[in-house]
Amino acid sequence: MVNAFSFGFGARNYSWTNGFHNNSVLAYQNQLTTHVVFRRAALTHCNGGFDETLTDGMEDWDMWLCMLSHNRSGYTMPEHLIWYRTSPATGRWKTWDTPAGRKEFRKRLRSSYPSLYPKTSPIAPTTGDPMGITPFTKRRPPARFASLALNQNEHRPHVIANPLRKWPSSPRMLLLAPWLEIGGADLFNIDLLRRLVERFGWHVSVIAMKTANDAIEGSFIGPWAHRYHQITPDVFVLPTFLEWNGIPQFVSYFLQSRVPDVVLIANCELAYLLLPFMKSIHPDALFMDYVHMVTPSWKNGGYAFYSATYSTLLDRTLASSKGVANWLAEHPAQQGADRLQHLYIGTNTSMFERQDEVRNGMRASLNISDTTAVVLFVGRMHEQKNPLLFVDTIARVLRVSDKVDDYYFQYTSSQGSEQQQDEPSMHAHIRVYMIGDGPLMDAVRDRVQQLGLQKSIVLLGAMAQEETWRYLNIADIFMQPSRYEGLSLALLEAMSMRLFPIASLVGSHDEVLANEQVVGQYAAAVHIEDHDSQPLSKQQLVNNFADALMSALSNLELTRARGRKAREVVQGIFSSSDQADLFVKECYHAAEARHSGVASEHGGTPSEGSIMRELQWGFAMLAAEEMFDNVYRKFLEMKRG
Question: Torsion-angle region of residue 128: left (phi > 0), alpha (psi -120 to 50) or beta?
Answer without folding.
Answer: left
